[in-house]
Amino acid sequence: MPFVGGMTQEDKVANEGQVTFDIRFHAVTPGMEQVKLIINVEAQKSFTPGYDIVTRAVYYCARLLSSQMGVEFTPKSYDGIKKVYSIWICFDVPEYAENTITEYKIQPNSLYGDFQGKVRYDLFSAVMVCLGKKEDLSAGSSLHRLLAAVFSEKLNTEAKKAVLEEQYGIQMTERIERSLAGMCNLSDLIYDRGLEQGRKKMLQMFLEKGGTEEEAKCLFEATREELEEARLQNA
């Protein structure tokens, strides 16, 4: 049986600020040659938030790799680095991206000669899962159809359970049922996270325009960590 373990959502690096992942966990594959993977899953409301979302996914992969220093590997041996996956489920996507799944990863490119040595370069994958805008349970791949059912605002929990059991053979457990019920609040969570990101952006702009930290604490209820992060962004 595979093993799955939770990890902290926050990753803070000096001079690089803090990243708060939606979900971060590690998984160990079953079998004789067990492989440990580190996986991050993000729910993204907008595919076009004002910057290329794929660059953010690649950055998250980089943070997932660098955060392993001193845990999975040391400067004396990099062989302990575990492969990372950053999987983004995007809800509001342009028409050209609807019902697509795209993986971005490192690949070798021989510029001269034919190198035959075995090296380990496949260390990260950024995967963008773009859903359709309409609630169509028949569009896209089986994964798109499954996610459309799970995140549907029209289906209640019992209807979602029936789809997962009858169409995808997923046996309901108490834990899965709790998670499924929690999906009803996902849109609110995404909305709240968008408001929080907007608040931090306004804080950054306020300090950039000459606002004091004391004023920022009152107006934005900014914490010391948020003020430090805003200063780094404006540096």
Structural description of this entry:
Helix 5 packs across helix 7. The strands form 2 sheets. The protein has a 6-stranded mixed β-sheet. A two-stranded antiparallel sheet has the order 2-3. It has 2 domains: 120 residues; 45 residues, no CATH class. By secondary structure, the chain is α/β, with parallel strands linked by helices. The longest helix has 23 residues.
Key phrases:
6-stranded mixed beta sheet; 22% strand; two-stranded antiparallel sheet; alpha/beta; 7 helices
User: How many domains in all?
Assistant: 2
Q: The biggest beta sheet, please?
A: 6 strands, mixed
User: What string, H for helix and E for strand, traces the elements in order?
Assistant: EEEEEHEEEHHHHHH
Low-confidence stretches: none
Biggest sheet strand line-up = 1-4-5-6-8-7
Proportion of helical residues: 25-40%
List the total number of helices: 7
Terminal Cα separation, in Å?
48 Å
Structural class: alpha/beta
Over all CA atoms, what is the radius of gyration? 21 Å
What would the principal axes of the Cα set say about the shape?
globular
Counted beta strands = 8
Strand content: 15-25%
Mean pLDDT: 82
Secondary structure elements and pairings:
Layout (H helix, E strand, L loop, with lengths): L2 E4 L3 E4 L3 E4 L2 E6 L7 E11 L6 H14 L16 E10 L7 E6 L18 E7 L11 H9 L6 H12 L5 H9 L3 H23 L4 H8 L3 H11 L1
Parallel strand pairs: 5-6, 6-8
Antiparallel strand pairs: 1-4, 2-3, 4-5, 7-8
Helix pairs in contact: 5-7
